[in-house]
Amino acid sequence: MNADLLTNPMLLKRLYDEQLRPVTQRCGLTRVELDILLFLANNPSYDTARDIVHVRMLSKSQVSASLDALAARGMLRAYHSADNRKVAHLTLLPPSADAVEQGRRAQQRFQEVLRQGIAPEELRRVERTVAQMTENIRAYLGEGERK
Q1: What is the predicted pLDDT for the residue at 7?
Q2: pLDDT attached to residue 3
Q3: SS3 track for the chain
C-alpha cells in the first residue's frame, strides 16, 4: 500500500498542529490542555482522567497536571458519583466555552483540508474503508468495540 497519509501519520499530525496552534496561543493553553477540553466536549461518554489517558494515549502525569491547571482556571471540575466515590468524573465549565468553540472551528478547518477535492461518494467509501481498518486493528488487538 503506497498511501502517504496512512503510512506517514506525521503529515496528519503536522496539519492538525498547525490548525490548533493559534487557538492555544489565543487562549493561553498548552496543547495538552486544549486536547483535553476538546476531548471532553466531543466525547461526552468519556469523562474520566483514565479515559483521556487510554483513548488519547497521553501520559498520566501530563493529564494530571493539565487537569489541575484547567481546574485552577475554572474551566472544568471533577465530581464523584454517589455510586462510585473512587472515580472522578470531569465536566466542562462555562469558562472553557470559548476555547472549545475555537478548537472545534480549528478541527473543522482540519477536516475541510482533508476532504478538499474528494467527491461525497468517494469520501463515504474512504470513511467505510478506514472504519473497517480500525475494526480489523481492534479485533486483532482484542479490544473490540469501545464505550
Answers
A1: 65
A2: 59
A3: CCCHHHHCHHHHHHHHHHHHHHHHHHHCCCHHHHHHHHHHHHCCCCCEHHHHHHHHCCCHHHHHHHHHHHHHCCCEEEEEECCEEEEEEEEECHHHHHHHHHHHHHHHHHHHHHHCCCCHHHHHHHHHHHHHHHHHHHHHHCCCCCC
